[in-house]
Amino acid sequence: MTGTRSASIFAFALLAPALLYIIGIVAYPLVDTINLSFTNAALRPTYDWVGWANYDKIFKANFSEVIIRTVIWTFFSVSIKMIIGTCGAVLLNAAVPGRALFRILTMPPWIVPMAIGIFMWGWMYNGQFGMISGLLQNFGIVDKPVAWLAYGNTAFWATIVTDVWIGVPLVTIYLLAAMQSIPRDLYEAAWTDGAGRFYRFRRITLPMIVPAMVTMSMLSLIATFNSFDIIWILTRGGPSGSTTTMIIDTYKTAIGSYKYGEGAARAVMICLFLSVFCLAYFRVVGKINTGERA
């Protein structure tokens, strides 16, 4: 009995730092944010309890447009990253000369500090002296400079392109690692049976990396959904709110307008959306594991 109690105390001692971290860094701020979302906290020393008023304001405002815009922005950004990352991993996994060098060359977008990379893209998007507009004019594709960040549609897709450029290297390396963990015997057996390259990819590579693709998709989705730096540095949510996502709207409300209660309510909504995504992820992973065991 004494040995069991000592083991329990030792196990709790090992878990204590992680528990303290979760309580102090995650649980307490989350509970405090939820509590703040039911108040009219602003730039004043005192505030009152207002119940669901902040959430009513969210649904009466144009927040539904912000939600739709965020979902579209996240969907296209994550989808493009996964497609390009998968293709890049397949190419880097092929037995070609200089493969190690190509793997190294995929990393700069991820290694370069994010702010520097975003400022670089902002310079390229500039209509007067940006490289993209200049190249299009030199090739005769456009007749005059194009200010990509000055118009809603082009600014929206410009931020997606920048996010894809930053996120693709991580997806590529992650999926490449998953591909390299596949036993080579499977490919040799398929090659012996006369299976072509595409058939081997469809029947061996793709099914084996599905768990890694699902995990990477979820991680990329959370990061993209909460992406702040790219949009804020490039457009600050403009022009005319065309690139304002949920995280940008929350920042503008809480920090820009000093409406901390309303901003907290928006933050809670973001947490709820991501919780739904996480639950869906665990459900998908559970089905995949069940299928593998079957």
Structure write-up:
- This protein is mainly alpha-helical.
- It has one domain (about 50-294): MetI-like fold.
- About 75% of the residues lie in helices and about 0% in strands.
- It contains 13 helices and no strands.
- The protein has helices at about 1-35, 55-60, 65-95, 100-105, 110, 115-125, 130-140, 150-180, 185-190, 195-225, 230-235, 245-255, 260-294.
- Helix 8 (about 150-180) packs across helix 10.
- The two termini are about 40 Å apart.
- CATH superfamily annotation: MetI-like
- The first-level CATH class is given as Mainly Alpha
As for the number of domains, it is 1
Tell me the major beta sheet.
none
Spans of 5+ residues with little confidence (pLDDT < 50)?
none
How much of the sequence lies in strands comes to under 5%
Number of strands: 0
From the 3D structure, determine the CATH topology: MetI-like fold
Helix proportion: over 70%
What's the tally of helices?
13
Question: What gyration radius follows from the Cα positions, in whole Å?
Answer: 24 Å
Mean pLDDT: 87
CATH second-level architecture: Orthogonal Bundle
Cα separation of the termini: 40 Å
Shape: flat
